[in-house]
């Protein structure tokens, strides 16, 4: 019987637990989270089998999944270097950034513990264990950054998540952080900025944001995400995010100039290119 310890039983940790419970391995799941409501709820639902604390229960686990905010994952990796783990244990994480996590995992890797960086590319703006779902990651990409894990450990982890039919993609930590900055971190900055700017500009307008149609709402859905989690991500991937924001501002300036100059062709091409790329994204989703 496989024992999995999940630390951080929020949206992602509890979704992983739900999926693992559906897998053929049917692991025993030990759950660690300071939130009493979340922990009691998941125990009551049979999604976790036992409430534990990470450092006390770490030695019982075959797989340890760190699923708290990135700053917490980094701190836990340092602490795990001071406890005795089961021989053959796999430690992995789900954090949205990978360079700092891989650096923080060095002490346990040096102790010959199998460590693998991980990041499921699915989720939502919702938080907490009650919001988790067993279909949250269905057909999604799951990034793996190789550390000291063995092939057998990777295979066992993948087997635990088999019901989600994930697309596993191996990537370096640097390439990962550059890519997710572009497709996830910068978009979250922009969504929050759209909301904050509109709120500021319209503060004396009696109708204001209440008139927003679906376009504003769908563009800014992710502005409803958890500020604690996103602060940790910004601090952990600041270089790539800052660099890409500079590019973004240059592009914005160009379209601003085209609009001011009434450059019909440039404005048309701007929207036509975006429409083609966006439609291709939907086609890809339909094929999966
Ligand atoms: N929300 C999303 O869509 C995605 C998030 N991620 C990453 O997954 C991780 C978790 O995110 P969510 O589940 O969305 O957040 P969440 O806010 O739903 O859950 C985080 C959980 O961690 C717990 N926690 C906080 N400090 C802790 C500690 N010291 N020890 C143990 N547990 C602790 C909280 O009580 C909470 O239950 C983050 O690192 C995030 O970057 C990755 C993919 C998607
Ligand atoms: O809500 C959404 O659509 C997201 O983009 C979820 C998300 C948040 C953080 C990640 O690291 C990956 C996915």
TrEMBL record:
InterPro entries: 6-PGluconate_DH-like_C_sf, NAD(P)-bd_dom_sf, PDH_C, PDH_N, Preph/Arog_dehydrog, Prephen_DH. Keywords: Amino-acid biosynthesis, Aromatic amino acid biosynthesis, NAD, Oxidoreductase, Tyrosine biosynthesis. Its EC number is 1.3.1.12. GO terms for biological process: tyrosine biosynthetic process. Pathway: Amino-acid biosynthesis; L-tyrosine biosynthesis; (4-hydroxyphenyl)pyruvate from prephenate (NAD(+) route): step 1/1. The keyword NAD applies. This is Prephenate dehydrogenase. It comes from Secundilactobacillus silagincola. The lineage of its organism: Bacteria, Bacillati, Bacillota, Bacilli, Lactobacillales. The gene is tyrA.
């Amino acid at each position: 019987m496989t024992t999995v310890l999940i630390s951080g039983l929020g949206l992602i940790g509890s979704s992983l637990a739900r999926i693992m419970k559906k897998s053929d391995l049917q692991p025993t799941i030990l759950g660690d989270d300071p939130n009493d409501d979340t922990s009691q709820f998941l125990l009551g639902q049979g999604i976790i089998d036992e409430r534990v604390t990470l450092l006390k229960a770490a030695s019982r686990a075959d797989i340890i999944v760190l699923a708290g905010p990135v700053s917490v994952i980094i701190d836990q990796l340092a602490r795990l270097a001071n406890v005795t783990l089961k021989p053959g244990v796999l430690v992995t994480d789900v954090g949205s950034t990978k360079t700092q996590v891989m650096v923080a995992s060095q002490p346990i890797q040096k102790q010959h513990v199998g460590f693998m960086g991980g990041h499921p590319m699915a989720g939502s703006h919702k938080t907490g264990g009650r919001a988790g779902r067993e279909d949250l990651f269905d057909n999604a990409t799951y990034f793996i950054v190789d550390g000291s894990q063995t092939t057998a450990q990777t295979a066992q982890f993948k087997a635990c998540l088999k019901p989600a039919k994930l697309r596993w993609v191996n990537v370096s930590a640097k390439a990962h952080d550059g890519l997710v900055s572009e497709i996830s971190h910068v978009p979250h900055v922009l969504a929050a900025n759209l909301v904050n700017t509109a709120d500021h500009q319209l503060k004396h307008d009696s109708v204001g944001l209440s008139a927003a149609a679906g376009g504003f709402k769908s563009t800014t859905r992710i502005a409803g995400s958890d500020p604690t989690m996103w602060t940790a991500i910004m601090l952990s991937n600041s270089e790539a995010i800052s660099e890409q924001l500079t590019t973004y501002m240059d592009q914005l300036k160009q379209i601003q100039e085209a609009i001011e100059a009434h450059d019909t062709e440039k404005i048309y091409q701007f929207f036509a290119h975006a429409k083609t790329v966006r439609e291709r994204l939907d086609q890809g989703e339909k094929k999966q």
